[in-house]
Amino acid sequence: MNVISLSALDLSIAAGLVLAVALLQWRMRLGNTRSLLIAGTRTVVQLLLLGLVLKIVFAASDIFWISVMAMVMLVAAGREVMVRQKRRFVGSWGFLLGTSSMFVSAFSITLLALLVIVQPEPWYLPQYSIPLLGMLLGNTLNGITLGLDNLTRNVWEQKAVLEGRLALGEAWTHAISDIRRDSIRVGMIPIINAMSVAGLVSLPGMMTGQIMAGAPPLEAVKYQILIMFLIAAGTGMGTITAIIIGCRRLFDERERLRLDRLQ
Amino acid sequence: MTDLVISNLQSSVPGLSVQHLEALDLTLREKEITGLNGPSGSGKSLLLRAIADLDPSGGDVLLGNQSRCSMKAHEWRKKVCYLPTESAWWFETVGEHFPDSNADVLQKLGFEEDVLDWKVSRLSSGEKQRLALARCLSRFPDALLLDEPTASLDESRTHLVEEVVSSYSTSRSVPVLWVSHDKNQLQRIAQYVLEIQSDGSIEEKD
Asked: How far is B14 from chain A (nearest CA, A)?
């Protein structure tokens, strides 16, 4: 591998840029300074930990440890979806709705990619399975977070409209249909944008990495196309699942709007 | 026979610990307007919402001899229509909120036919209130639950609405429950007037 190794100084320069933005936000009282700094710190700590863990998991290449790691990633993603909701579902629904939607979409698509498309030997080879799952989870997480946040926020704000429609005898599926369509659309925006500008405006991260690592550009392109499609499918499936279940949960068996199920 | 029979009804809104109203037994007769009066916050709207099955509630409500449990909730609400004081609008124009060709009721409420092309964002609160009633009646419900339907109307429009509801009630044999703060109005239009007492019971006023 002919990768140029990065020194601590190289990373410090990049970190300095983030600090500069934080300082600017603080001086101009724009808010958000705290969350930027926390997110930056989390990036460093989490990625360093990941580097260490991956080193061990790659060396062991044991399906048990790979499964454990996949579960940890799923739970972390589920928690992230939950805490980013302004109005989340009450009780275990808050965590399980996002987590199960990601499980259904990201896991099944990663399995399909490993078993049918890429077919590494063995199929769970961590150098392939962990990054694939990570990319799928990360992007599905985005879609589900945006979609669910849009759903719960709109339902909360449009209580009068929803109940007005119910009072006129509309079925709940009809009353919520506009919000549901809009929420799925919002969840899909990032991946649709990414696919639309891929190669024109942005060089996608994975391809950039492969090219820097010395892979032939066309090989990198093929992988990137594959990943983009997998992500689009995963985000779509995950978002649609989460929104459909979320909508159902907002109404009870007598088609009443139940905002008490949101926090 | 399409009386609206309310039996042992008690609203139980989750998160709302205080129960304002006692369990209610009441029959709203067809072709009759029943007035309901009571201080603000005494639970008049909650009662109407419970009858329309928009909030969870104990007890039963029957239209004629059909229990609300025997049909899907949206079919029930199509028959037993609740009209809130503040109407909500979700399309850009008035007409999109109406089923096809219902100029009749609009005309009776003092609108020309071109009202269907009006933008919702430009309606006054009085126009909204009358149009919300028209939107409700244009779906031909079998029972009406009206929550202060003339709250933002001037005197002449108020009389117009009273007339339209009365004639709808008698011509289609529909029971009406009409909530109002205006006791004179209830004397004028209602065959029976009920008043919510401070202890949460409901008594008939002469």
From this structure: 7
